[in-house]
Design brief:
10 helices, elongated
């Protein structure tokens, strides 16, 4: 393609950022078919497939990305999200655990703290959906010390408040919401 793999990737990313997910999926598919080792291309292809409801295809694309780099923390994070979306909770938790281990081994790059925060938020939501308020709170509280993004902090505090309310601890839930 004209401009090479970088131009193809940015073309797909432009479509993705503009919420033109089908066009982005086509662009990333062309990229990964031309360059089967393009890690970011596989990851974005999978995210497009996930966003457009192609869950099985998304999981295959995440497997391809992880075949290129098994410690690809962002890919493991996103793979976990795909598993959670289809209700495969054990697989989601396993992918997120691997993402945390990859970050610990230095594989998260500049986004390491954000990846860790996102893993803990997603795990917290999954625990809450399964009625596990103890782990909901534990994982949500992990976020507060990891990331300066105020949206992540607000999401984490919201998860804690939900779990407190589910336990009947309404004062604690109200106090937690007051921190948002």
């Amino acid at each position: 393609a004209e401009g090479g793999a970088d131009a193809a990737f940015h073309r797909g990313k432009l479509f993705f950022d503009a919420s033109h997910f089908e066009e982005a999926r086509v662009a990333f598919t062309e990229l990964t078919e031309a360059d089967g080792a393009h890690l970011a291309g596989w990851n974005m292809r999978a995210m497009c497939e996930l966003t457009t409801g192609r869950h099985a295809a998304a999981l295959e694309s995440f497997r391809a990305a992880l075949g290129v780099e098994p410690d690809f923390a962002e890919g493991l994070l996103n793979q976990g999200q795909a598993y959670a979306t289809i209700g495969s909770h054990a697989e989601a938790l396993a992918s997120w655990k691997k993402a945390l281990m990859a970050v610990q081994r230095g594989k998260g790059g500049a986004a390491a703290a954000a990846i860790r925060a996102r893993v803990y938020l997603l795990r917290s939501r999954l625990h809450y959906a399964r009625g596990d308020t103890t782990n909901t709170i534990a994982d949500a509280r992990q976020v507060l010390g990891l990331d300066d993004d105020p949206r992540n902090a607000a999401d984490a505090l919201h998860q804690v408040a939900l779990a407190c309310a589910a336990r009947g601890e309404y004062r604690e839930a109200d106090k937690t919401l007051g921190r948002i």
